Amino acid sequence: MEDKIVQIAYEVLAILIPALVALVAELVRRRLGTERIQKIQEELVAKQELAIIAVKFVEQAYMQLKGPEKYQQAAAWLAKQAQNHGIKLAEDEIKGLVEWALREIKDELGEQWADGLQS
After folding, report:
1. 25 touches 72 (CB < 8 A)
2. What is the CA radius of gyration of the chain?
């Protein structure tokens, strides 16, 4: 009788241990995935904040410049600041961020932006 109980206990352990290992592995995988997503989100927010600062800076510091020249200045400033902060940006990502920031500012300021451009 004791042999059967020991045998059943071993069989139960043989089933439970792999199941517990798989459960722990899945929890670790999900935790790492969540942390990676959070890091990506934080980096995106930092990039967006730098882009908005770049556009506002260029609007203030280079008022005499127009469209493409302002974009070049904003892109250069953004690239330099990102590099200083250890953030990697591709050229197309810089363009997208500058365009996004410009749209955000225009949407935020609305008519004030248009009036400022005409003055």
Report:
1. no
2. 27
> Is 94 in contact with 80 (CB distance < 8 Å)?
no
Give dist(CA 71, CA 40) in Å, integer. Answer: 26
Tens of pLDDT along 61-119? Answer: 988 988 889 999 999 999 999 999 898 989 999 999 999 998 888 888 776 665 555 44
User: pTM of the full predicted structure?
Assistant: 0.66
Q: In this structure, are residues 78 and 100 in contact, taking their beta carbons and an 8 Å threshold?
A: no
From CA 117, how far away is CA 105, in angstroms rounded?
A: 13
